[in-house]
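Let's practice the habit of predicting before peeking. Look at the sequence and jot down your guess about where helices and strands might fall. Then scroll down.
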Amino acid sequence: MSVYFDIRNDAVAVIETDAPETGWIKLTTKQSRLAARYRVEAGKVVDAYPGKTDEEVLAAIEATQVALTTPPAVPTRVITKLAFMNRFTMEELAAIYTAAKTEVMVEVFMDKLKLAEHVDVTDPQTIAGLQALAASGLLTEARVQEVLQ
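Done guessing? Here is the structure:
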C-alpha cells in the first residue's frame, strides 16, 4: 500500500490505499503522515510547521485551540514587562533565552515580549506563548499557571 495526500476541498487528508484517485499526491518517505501539519496553497501541499516534530506540531495546535476556546476567567490584568519577567526564576529565564537561540517559536515569543508596551496576563496570546514554553519543556503547566496569576 502507498500513502497519498487527498487535497480536495482545500483540506489535507492522508490516505493509505492501493487504489489512488485522480489528483491525489503520493507522500515521499520523508513526509509525515500527520495531516494536521499540512495546508493547501495554490493546489500544492505545504508543511505549515517546517523543522518541527509531529509531537511539537500537536502541542502547538493544542496550545492554539486551548487559547482560542478558553474564555477569560478574570478581568484584564496588565503588568509591566519587568513585573512579568520577574515572575520567572533566573534558571527558567536562562533556559528560555537558550532555547530562543534554536527554537523559532520561543524566539518569536521573546521578541513580541520585547516589543510590547505591557503584558496582559489574561491575553490569549500571552497564555498561548506560555503554553508553548511548557510544550517545549521550558516550564511546567503548574509554573504556567503561577506566572499567569
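How did you do? The first helix runs from residue 54 to 69.
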